[in-house]
Specification:
The protein is of the alpha/beta class. The protein folds into 2 domains: 97 residues, Ribosomal protein L30/S12 (60s Ribosomal Protein L30, Chain: A, 2-Layer Sandwich); 146 residues, Alpha/beta knot (3-Layer(aba) Sandwich), CATH 3.40.1280.10. The strands form 2 sheets. A 7-stranded parallel sheet has the order 8-7-6-11-9-12-10. Strands 1-4-3-5-2 form a 5-stranded mixed sheet, sandwiched between helices. Strand 6, helix 6 and strand 7 form a beta-alpha-beta unit. It is elongated. The termini are far apart.
Length: 260
């Protein structure tokens, strides 16, 4: 493969790519995702994805160019100034890649599932995706109003976890209720303590954990659908936990019980 070279910020191809890297929801229009850095690119390849296009600095060694040429359909070289323009990081990466947005598949009614209900923080969303992938909750679903899950900030925070889960965005509560999975919601002040449920082997599996907005919690309508409200013991006396921390604790509890 012969790499192409782009040197102008006014190049139409570069303008479209810049929109993809800077606009949180451009991936929905373009149906492709930007991966910044060799770690994310390698994570996608390791999960069996072929990259649509690799973009890298024109100062990269030819052996590296040849290596990545085998993993993509096209490769473009940019001067460092243009590579920097694609990034919002203090230290921009020397490479990135474009990946076709994974094709839509059907929700499965028998899979351990995690619902993010109107979460807003990209760092929290990415961290939760990492926990979901680690603990076997490979069906991750968002409700309308949740942060764009394939935006650059969420993708960076998840550090490759996107490729270990099946992600569904903007799914209605009615569609989720139709899956007929036991619904578990977290609460700071009411419900059974999580550690006691684990001790009694009373966490249903598969199930659907629902985690809510950082400030408002889950939509009140989930209460009527919930099989259990769950509290996390906090002997230190804090009022509540960060939603990403709570997610890690809850998903680990389900995974632990499932192994016994």
């Amino acid at each position: 493969m012969t790499p192409k070279t782009v040197t102008s910020k006014d190049n139409p191809w570069f303008k479209q790519l810049r929109q993809l890297t800077s606009d949180n929801t451009a991936y929905r229009l373009q149906q492709r995702v930007w991966l910044e850095g060799d770690h994310l690119c390698q994570a996608a390849v390791d999960r069996g994805h072929r990259l649509a296009e690799v973009v890298m600095s024109d100062t990269v060694d030819e052996q590296v160019i040849a290596q990545w040429s085998e993993r993509c359909d096209a490769l473009t070289l940019l001067p460092d100034k243009l590579m920097q323009a694609l990034s919002n990081l203090p230290s921009p990466a020397w490479m990135g890649a474009v990946l076709a947005l994974p094709s839509a598949v059907d929700l499965q009614p028998d899979q351990p599932s995690l619902v993010l209900d109107r979460l807003q923080d990209p760092g929290n969303a990415g961290s939760i995706l990492r926990s979901a992938a680690a603990f076997g909750f490979t069906q991750v679903i968002t409700t309308p109003g949740t942060v764009a899950m394939w935006s650059a900030k969420v993708v960076r925070a998840a550090m490759g976890a996107h490729f270990g889960v099946r992600l569904f965005e903007s799914v209605s509560m009615e569609e989720l209720a139709a899956l007929n999975l036991p619904v578990l919601i977290t609460s700071s002040h009411q419900g059974d303590f999580l550690h006691e449920l684990v001790q009694r082997q009373q966490l249903p599996m598969p199930c659907m954990w629902v985690l809510g907005h950082e400030g408002q919690g889950v939509d009140p309508r989930w209460t009527a659908l919930a099989q259990q409200q769950v509290r996390i013991a906090q002997p230190g006396g804090e009022e509540s936990l960060n939603v990403a921390a709570a997610a890690a604790i809850c998903l680990h509890a389900s995974a632990t019980q499932a192994r016994h």
